Amino acid sequence: MIALAEPTANPASVKLTLQTLEIAEDTTAIRSLDWDRDRFDIEFELRNGTTYNSFLIRGEKTALVDTSHAKFRDLYLDELTQLINPAEIDYLIISHTEPDHSGLVRELLELAPQVTVVGSKVAIQFLEDLVHQPFKQQLVKNGDRIDLGGGHELEFVSAPNLHWPDTILTYDHKTQSLFTCDVFGMHYCDDGIYDADLTLLDADYQLYYDCLMGPNARSVLAALKRMAALPEITTIATGHGPLLRHHIAELVGRYRDWSQAQAKAETTVALFYAADYGYGDELAHALAGGILKTGVAVELIDLKVADLQEVREMVDLAAGVMIGMPPQASQSGDMQAALSTILAAITPKQTIGLFESGGGDDESVYPIRNRFQEAGIKEAFAPILIKETPNEATYQLCDEAGIDLGQWLTRDRAVKQMKALDNDLDRALGRLSGGLYIITAKKGEAASAMLASWVSQASVEPLGITIAVAKDRAIEAFLHAGDQFILNVLEEGNYQHLMKHFLKRFAPGADRFAGIKVHPAANGSPILGEALAYLECEVVSRMECSDHWLVYSTVDVGRVSKPDALTAVHHRKVGNHY
Ligand code: FEO
Question: What's the CA gap between 315 and 323, in Å, rounded?
Answer without folding.
Answer: 11
